C-alpha cells in the first residue's frame, strides 16, 4: 500500500526539482526526504527517481505516479470537506494567509463577520507574499489564502491548488505633487526619475519592472520598500515614483498625485484542490465578499507584456 505522506513528498519533488527544496519547504531534513522517497520506491516496486550526482529526476513511472498522487490528495481534501460539513457548526482553527494591503483593508471586516456568524471558528492570520502561498498551502501551514496577480505578471499554475476570483482593483502611478514631466505615456514619462519598488522576488517588484520595460525603459530603483504606506510617504518626500494598487492608496495623501493606469491587480482566494466546499473555507470566502470596500471594481481587462 502506498503511503499518502510519501506521495505528497514525490509530488513536491516534481514541483520543486530538488530534494533540498522539498526539505526546506516541508521542514524536513534532506536525508529524511531522501529516505522516505526510497521507501516509496520500494512500496511501488519500480524506480521512481533517477539520480545523477546531486541531481534527481523523476522516471516515467515517477511522473505517472505524481498524476495519481494529485488525484488522491484532491479526493482526501474532498473527503475532509464532506466530513466537516457533516459536523454541527464550525469550530477549530482556520489558518489564513494574506498580503499586507488586504490584511489592513479587508481581512478585519471579514473576521468580524466570521466571529458573529461562526463563533466556534478560530481564524489565525499570517502575512506573506503571494509567491510563498502555494508552498504554505501544500505543506498544510495554511488552509486558505488571499493571493493576487498583476497585469504583466500572470498567475503561475500551482499544482495541487485551486483558486476562486474575488475582486479586481485599479493600479495607480504615485508621483510627487506638482511634478509632471512631458510625455503622453503615464509610465514612460517618468523614465528619468528614480523609482520606489518592492524587494526583489515579490510580485509587486516584478510587476513594476515589467510595466517600465513595456514603456521602453529600465527603471532606476532608488528605494526598495514593500509596505505601500511607506512607499507613498517616500513619494510625498520627493524620493521617487511608484506603482500602487487601489488598496495600497485608500485615501489621497498630501504631496502625492495618483494617476490611474490602464492595468489592474486581481485578487483570488486560494486553497488546496478539493477544499473549495470545505465549510470553513466557504465561510471565510463569503465573509470576504461581505467586507469588500464598495468602490472596488473589475478594472480594465488583463494586459500581457508585449514580446
UniProtKB/TrEMBL annotation:
Residues 2-59 form the HTH lysR-type domain. GO terms for molecular function: DNA binding; DNA-binding transcription factor activity. It comes from the Bacteria. The keyword DNA-binding applies. InterPro entries: LysR_HTH_N (IPR000847), LysR_subst-bd (IPR005119), WH-like_DNA-bd_sf (IPR036388), WH_DNA-bd_sf (IPR036390). The keyword DNA-binding applies. Keywords: DNA-binding, Transcription, Transcription regulation. GO terms for cellular component: protein-DNA complex. PANTHER family: LYSR SUBSTRATE-BINDING, TRANSCRIPTIONAL DUAL REGULATOR HCAR-RELATED. Belongs to the LysR transcriptional regulatory family. This is LysR family transcriptional regulator.
Amino acid at each position: 500500500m502506498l503511503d499518502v505522506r510519501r506521495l505528497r513528498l514525490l509530488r513536491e519533488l516534481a514541483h520543486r526539482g530538488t530534494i533540498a527544496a522539498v526539505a526546506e519547504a516541508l521542514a524536513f531534513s534532506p536525508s529524511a526526504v531522501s529516505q522516505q522517497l526510497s521507501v516509496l520506491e520500494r512500496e511501488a516496486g519500480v524506480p521512481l527517481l533517477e539520480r545523477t550526482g546531486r541531481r534527481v529526476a523523476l522516471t516515467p513511472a515517477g511522473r505517472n505516479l505524481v498524476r495519481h498522487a494529485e488525484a488522491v490528495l484532491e479526493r482526501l481534501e474532498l473527503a475532509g470537506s464532506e466530513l466537516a460539513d457533516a459536523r454541527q457548526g464550525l469550530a477549530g482553527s482556520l489558518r489564513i494567509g494574506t498580503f499586507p494591503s488586504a490584511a489592513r483593508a479587508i481581512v478585519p471586516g471579514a473576521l468580524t463577520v466570521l466571529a458573529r456568524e461562526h463563533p466556534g471558528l478560530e481564524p489565525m492570520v499570517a502575512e506573506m507574499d503571494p509567491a510563498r502561498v502555494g508552498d504554505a498551502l501544500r505543506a498544510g501551514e495554511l488552509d486558505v489564502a488571499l493571493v493576487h496577480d498583476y497585469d504583466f505578471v500572470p498567475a503561475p499554475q500551482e499544482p495541487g491548488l485551486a483558486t476562486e476570483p474575488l475582486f479586481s482593483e485599479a493600479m495607480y502611478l504615485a508621483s510627487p505633487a506638482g511634478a509632471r514631466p512631458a510625455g503622453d505615456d503615464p509610465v514612460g514619462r517618468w523614465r528619468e526619475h528614480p523609482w520606489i519598488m518592492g524587494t526583489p522576488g515579490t510580485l509587486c517588484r516584478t510587476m513594476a519592472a515589467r510595466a517600465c520595460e513595456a514603456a521602453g525603459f529600465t527603471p532606476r530603483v532608488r528605494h526598495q520598500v514593500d509596505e505601500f504606506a511607506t512607499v507613498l510617504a517616500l513619494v510625498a518626500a520627493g524620493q521617487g515614483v511608484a506603482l500602487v494598487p487601489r488598496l495600497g492608496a485608500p485615501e489621497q495623501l498630501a504631496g502625492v498625485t495618483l494617476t490611474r493606469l490602464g492595468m489592474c491587480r486581481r485578487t483570488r482566494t486560494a486553497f488546496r484542490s478539493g477544499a473549495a466546499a470545505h465549510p470553513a473555507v466557504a465561510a471565510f470566502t463569503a465573509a470576504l465578499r461581505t467586507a469588500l470596500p464598495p468602490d472596488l471594481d473589475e478594472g480594465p481587462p488583463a494586459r500581457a507584456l508585449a514580446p
